[in-house]
Amino acid sequence: MSELRFVRMGFGDEAVEYQEAWDEQRRVHAARFADEAPDTVLLLEHPPVYTAGRRTADNERPLDGTPVIDVDRGGKITWHGPGQLVGYPIQKLPRPVDVVAHVRRLEEALIRTCAEFGLETTRVEGRSGVWVLGDPVEQRPAPYGGAARSGSAEGGGGRRAGLSLDLDPRLDDEEFDPRMNGPEYAPSNAGQRREDRKIAQIGIRVAKGVTMHGFSFNVNPDMKWFDRIIPCGIRDAGVASLAYELGRDVTIEEVLPVVERHLREVLGNAELKPREIERTPAA
Fold first, then answer.
1. CATH 3.30.930.10, domain 4-133+186-268, yes or no
2. Residue 106: which of 209, 220, 216 has the closest Cα?
3. What positions does the domain BPL/LPL catalytic occupy (predicted)?
């Protein structure tokens, strides 16, 4: 088991401004690269803030001009704020780094956390993060006035994800913007629509073989913050929180030690391997 240190930076009234946490990430990253610090996970809450990864499109940002911090992680735009547990694992990995394996480990720790609270979550193929799958499409309400039908991508565990409804303009109209068309399309209402919804977002960066950034886990935030943006650039699914899915109040204080334990089990016990590079045989 590799050494793994947890640093609780600040929560609630002591929530950590995004820039302060980003500066601390870079400081710890440099120390970890120089072997002056062990693998470290920074855990915290942020005051409300939107951050945009490198692949964020202009039309996914807030329509009202709300400021967004552009960051050097992968992924697209998301929100951080009260009621959301943020974790920044700063871990040295063998080169060439297997980025996908690192993302899968973070997902696994959060999937185990949700299971401990009684919530089944999974992965969705082609989409990072941790997901609550929607109901089978034939069992969903049809808020758009159309009949249910099967749709797109395969999800984890053999179940279908990304299913849709007839007459859903999100699927066929490239200019349709759910933010301008009422609460029935709002990402925060995906649970009411019983659609697929993301409960934990993941976006990372690897520099010099050491990871940065990480995950944000929606414990009990005001989910309407997500309605100003296109969360993670995904228009045909929504967002979820642990409290909503369980139907009861859940606090960061309650979730924090459970997340730490599963991160320690998954990251600390992982057999770290370099990414395999396929080589074309010489002719």
1. yes
2. 216
3. 35-271
